[in-house]
Amino acid sequence: MTFKVPGFIKKLSTSRRPNPAEGPSHRDFVARPVLRADHSREFSWKNENVLILGQDKGIYDLAKGISALGASVSFRFLTQLQELYHLPLEQYSTIIMTDKSDGQPCDVIDVGGILRRADSNLRLVWASKQFKLSADATTADGRFCDVQLALPASPSHLELFLRSPLR
Q: Which residue among 3, 12, 130, 146 is least packed, with the fewest CB closer than 10 Å?
């Protein structure tokens, strides 16, 4: 019996087809580089990759404004808290989270805590219509966010807090 190595390897590689229910493979994932916030240079939305978690109506106008100023904006709606562990966080410099009022079943404090532990360099913004005023988060907030943003808000309004020397 003769054994052909190239034919055997080809047969092995084509014999296993992934089940569509398994989801996408991240083996060949290459993260795009992110220009992290540098306090020595001027802030620019063009240097920002923003992820918005949630579907609050008030967040769409903010996202449009940020995008018009040059930021790369992505949206994600979490159906389970475990989905956070599959986010490519290295792609983002800022994450804007909306509260549970939009029907998202995840608590913003849990989401922010997981994101903070995963990457301490991320700027986390909690955006909600429930806030009367925007504010920098304090240690009493558990540092699960950096900014508490009152909606509706403009990109320039948020930019003031992102430039804050507290970060």
A: 3
